[in-house]
Amino acid sequence: MKSILATRFIHWKKQRTSLIFWLLFPIIATIGIITATEVLQEDTKVPVGVVLEEETEESKELVEEIKTTPFVRIREIPEDDALHQLRKHELDSVFVIHEGFEEKILENNRSQLITSYQSDLSFAYSPVKEIILSYVQQETGKSKAAFTVKELEQQYETNTGWTFEEIVIKSNQIEQDENLLNTAFSFSGSPVKGSKNTPLFSIWGLWAICSMLSTLLLFDWVIKERQSNTRVRFAFTRWTLKSYLLQNLILYSVLFFIIDLLTVITLYAIFGEWINIFNLIVFRILLSLAAFLLAHLFKTTYLFYSVSFGLTLFVTISSGAVLPPGVTDWFWLDLLNPVLPLLSGEYLSLWSLIVILFTIVWLVRKERYHA
Amino acid sequence: MLNIQSLSKEYGKKQILNSVTLTAKSGEIIGLVGENGAGKSTMLQILATLSQPTSGSISLDDQSYKKSKKHIRKKVGFVGQDIALWEEFTVKENMVFFEKLSWIKKSEVELRQLCRDMKLEKWDETVKTLSGGMKRKLNLAISLIHEPMLLLLDEPTVGIDLKSRKEIGSYLHDLAKNHGKMIIYTSHDMDEINNLCERVYCIGNDPFYRKLLQEYGKEPIIL
After folding, report:
1. Key word Transferase present in the record (chain B) (predicted)?
2. pLDDT at residue B55 above 90?
3. A190: in domain
4. What's the total number of domains in chain A?
5. CB within 10 Å: which end of chain B, N or C, has fewer?
């Protein structure tokens, strides 16, 4: 293996630029696409101005709540600037949270808490207003509940020793435990993650597709070395051509896996996205084997590259990026999809069986030399 | 010693080699001539274990080709008509690459010396920038890394300049006479064959080659 590694290094040295490019392509493309879509999502959000006349827990929480409104971007600015920008239609609407907001909430007083402004072009005004109303309703409700508990305590002359804050915390906990409606979205069975800014694509799904393309293209060495005149020399070396190819397949798979592990760390650090390492190992082995076997079918790299791009496009479409899953009745497409087992962890698919079967056929097949 | 007995090869119904019998000793250079398609390359491929004969037997150093193909391959060096090199590698990288895969380990100094013996000095140059003659020399040098006792050369000097041709010829002569290698050589250049080979076998029944060999003063042996 040491000798094979030495020979492979000579090849890698000659093609280091393309090798490094295609090895790093999946991670760079994934980070690039996700970041670009996030920026795009951010840029397409409607700007809404919020004026904070007091910096209290309640007022800050309300701002955080408004920020959860889909497709709304909050700008915290002084009132004069906000109204000026509203006139110029640089802001969709403006909400002024007045001084004494927290105090009034705690006193269950709902009048004159917030002043809102809108223009004839405002369209984010209504959803934001609804969010504010529901928040105020919810918070004043909690205060009211706390006051009621305190009154009952006095009426029945009991002493539970509960403070006003403890009652509010308890009601928050009950609210969370008995949430009426909880929604979550996932892509092709990918793990569900609560996030304020959910990406448009599954990060690992996108990476897997990019990785499929780079793996296929980097396995062009199989064609170049099988079609080279040098293949006849393998009859007179320590290694047969088959053994040489097999050991190089292992080397490439290890190289890819090292890059995969770096990808796991990087994507976790940037997006907080994790993947099951065992799923990743199975995905890598099957993908490397498939690229290796596919390359055996070609005599020219040009045709192989064309097929590689075509297959990647096909998998991208059938993975739900263009045609949402369930639109077609072609369930067998899912069975043949190399990306789905990575995301779902279901390894026993038609895809894995086919790859294993063809690998066995390749291993038992006799090799021939042509001088 | 190489011993070939009643060797025949057929492709379908076409008989290429018909009951060929010959022997070669250490230090001998044997020439094979014949028209295109007569079976010279087929004969070399069979001797290089790259092709199977239809019938007959071959042994090298008393080891049968049928029984010990793997051991035979360690003793055989083959230089085909096509140049089998990595074009984008340098001379050094090509030598190191095939040394790493070889049964015999050689240092870089030894590999370089092998090239120098063949008057191939451009150690760090990329193969694609080399002349045809240099490429042929490197092609031959790589086939000698594992120190074969039988060297099979299929038109090794085709398309190269006279100087390189002479240098290769002189090197092959040295290999046979001073290092005891057996060399079987095919070529269409009758001057080359005449200068280098002690025995010349004529493959096929073409009277042209028989007559030509007689003109060069060689007794043709018909296979």
Report:
1. no
2. no
3. no
4. 2
5. N
Distances (CA, A) of A122 to A46, A51, A87, B29, B208: 9, 17, 11, 97, 100
Residue A100 lies in a domain: yes
Range of the domain at A270: 2-37+201-364
Are the Cβ atoms of A7 and B100 closer than 8 angstroms?
yes
User: Looking at the structure, do residues A148 and A224 belong to the same domain, yes or no?
Assistant: no
- Kindly determine whether residue B83 and residue A229, on different chains, have CB atoms separated by under 8 Å: yes
Burial (CB count within 10 angstroms: exposed 0-12, middle 13-18, buried 19+), residue B18: middle
Determine, yes or no, domain membership for A263: yes
Burial A167-194 (b: 16+ CB within 10 A, else e): bbeebeeeeeeeeeeeeeeebbebeeee
What are A's interface residues with B at a Cβ cutoff of 8 A? Answer: 3-4, 6-7, 10, 14, 228-239, 244, 369-371
Does the structure show a pLDDT above 60 at A190?
no
Statement to judge: residues A76 and A166 lie in one domain: yes
Residue A33 in any domain: the answer is yes
Asked which of A153-157, B162-166, B196-200 is least confident by mean pLDDT, the reply is: A153-157
Residue A195 has pLDDT above 50, yes or no: no
Between A249-263, B32-46, B170-184, the lowest mean confidence (pLDDT) is in B32-46
Q: Give me the mean pLDDT over the A228-239 stretch.
A: 88
pLDDT of residue B188: 82
Assess whether A97 and A115 both reside in one domain.
yes
Amino acid at A316: T
Residues A139 and A17 in one domain: no
**Taking CB atoms and an 8 Å limit, are A236 and B76 in contact across chains?**
yes
Calculate what percentage of chain A has a pLDDT beyond 90.
Answer: 25
What's the pTM?
0.74
- pLDDT attached to residue A189: 47
Q: Which of A131, A162, A177 is the last residue of a domain?
A: A177
For residue A165, how far is the Cα from the chain centroid?
38
Residues 6 or more apart whose Cβ sits within 8 Å of residue A232? A369, A370, A371, B50, B78, B80, B82, B84
Residue of B nearest to A10 (CA): B93
Contact A244 B48 (CB under 8 A): no
One-letter amino acid for residue B163 of the chain: K
pLDDT of B95 over the 90 cut: yes
Top-confidence residue, A321 or A117: A117
Higher-pLDDT residue of B12, A367: B12
Measured between CA atoms, how close is A237 to chain B, in angstroms? 5
What CATH number is attached to the domain comprising A97?
3.40.190
Q: Sort out which chain A residues have CB atoms less than 8 A from B149's CB and list them.
A: none
Greatest mean pLDDT range, A52-66, A308-322, B38-52: B38-52
Q: What is the chain A residue with the closest CA to B100?
A: A3
Q: Token pair 């051991």 is at which residue?
A: B71
Nearest to A371 among B77, B78, B85 (CB): B78
| Residue B200 to chain A, least CA–CA distance (Å) | 23
- Co-location of A128 and A65 in the same domain: yes
